[in-house]
Amino acid sequence: MLLPVLLATSLAVESVLGCADHTGRQRGHLSPRHLKRQAASAAAGATVGGSGPAGGSTNSSAPSPDWAYDASYDWGAIQTDYADCQTGTQQSPIALSLTNGLSLYHHPTFDNYDRNVTGNWTNWGYGPSFTLDHAADDYTTLPAMKWDNITAYLKGWHIHAPADHSVGGDRSKAELHLVHVDSKGHENAVLAIRLDPGTTPLPFFRQLPKMIPFQTGPDRSPSRDVAPGQPPRSNKPEVVENTSMNMALVLNSVYQVSEFRTYKGSLTSPPCREGIRWFVARTIAFTSVEQMKAILGASTYSARQEQEVWLHEINSA
Q1: In angstroms, what CA-CA distances link 121 with 55, 148, 221, 241, 299?
Q2: Model-level pTM?
Q3: CA–CA distance, 224 with 19 (Å, rounded to integer)
Q4: Any bridge partners for residue 276, and if so which?
Q5: Under a CB-based contact definition with an 8 Å cutoff, are residues 248 and 114 in contact?
Q6: Are the C-beta atoms of 217 and 39 separated by less than 8 Å?
Q7: Within 10 A of 167 (CB to CB), how many other CB atoms are there?
């Protein structure tokens, strides 16, 4: 009698784990990390499909994401809107090889980067971020990057740690993403600048207020990993409005992006939409040791697993 009972129990367990949920997904295909995120989102009454960092901004009232960077290998299994994460042909980031050389095409030029801009200084949940002020639905007054008769406007920037892109097998401590949009506000280009510690402070970061901590926990609950005797972090990110900065300082640190690698890619978080022109500066921007410690102290892991090179047209015309 024991064998039939065990067999029946085994079939019952398999049926539960493999049962499709209401979204048509097989719950058995989701990682424990994703299931934990979904449970936290459901408990908070949030909808799935939280926005990623692509816009360079953080909405403190946004729903908790149902995905996690440390489980990026199966984003496509979470919901149908994330299908590109699994089936896309130009997914980002990718490993860049020294044998790719540097691009001779699509040279970017920059307009109005040399003037002061104002915006919101905050933390996008994984690291430091800045969103530029602009009139509602009008992005054309923002600093612009141009290439091949295409104009893209700087919406904001954010930092990933460690770097998204490796070059020649080397991965920097962090990577700065300058996110650009078209005149309608749709992301169409990202300028990536790798960051590593050096010996002198980087002027670009010296103009900013103190770093704002990331928020731990998918439900944006107060952090429990603070030092004993210290108050827990707030469950909403701090925002410093009307922060002024000069974006030319970051371009100067990489020689105006005179040397770069470029390819056709995607957003690096769900829904992983493609149609993004990536520019990866050859030059690394070096911070001081203290600046890098501050950046890393305000960051948590936010690097998507590098994707296989496919139809990315690296450095091609």
Answers
A1: 14, 32, 21, 6, 14
A2: 0.80
A3: 35
A4: 265
A5: yes
A6: no
A7: 18
Residue with tokens 């039939």: 4
| The pair of three-digit structure tokens given for residue 189, joined into one six-digit string | 């280009």
Which secondary-structure segment (H or E) carries 17?
helix 2-18
pLDDT in tens, 235-286: 577 999 999 999 999 999 999 999 999 999 999 999 999 999 999 999 999 9
From residue 270, how far is each of 18, 229, 277 by CA, in Å? 24, 37, 17
Q: How much of the chain is helix, strand and coil, in % rounded to 5? A: 25, 25, 50
SS3 string of 135-173?
CCCCCCCCCEEEECCEEEEEEEEEEECCCCCEECCEECC
Mean pLDDT, rounded, for 48-73: 57
Cα distance between residue 222 and residue 303, in whole Å: 23
Longest dimension (CA), the chain: 81
Beta bridge partners of 260: 281
The values of phi and psi at residue 18, to 5°, are -95, 0
Per DSSP bridges, beta strands 285-287 and 187-197 are parallel
Closest listed residue to residue 286, CA positions, set 172, 166, 171: 172
Distance CA 94, CA 167 (A): 9
Confidence at residue 215, expressed as pLDDT on a 0 to 100 scale = 73
pLDDT of 226: 42
Least confident of 42-46, 61-65, 129-133, 208-212: 42-46
Rounded CA separation 169/243 (Å): 36
Q: pLDDT above 90 covers what percent of the chain?
A: 72
Token pair of 73 as six digits: 């290998």
DSSP E strands: which ranges in 40-137? 109-111, 116-123, 128-132
pLDDT bin (cut points 50, 70, 90) of residue 188 is very high
Rounded CA separation 83/100 (Å): 29
Q: Is the pLDDT assigned to residue 198 strictly greater than 80? A: yes
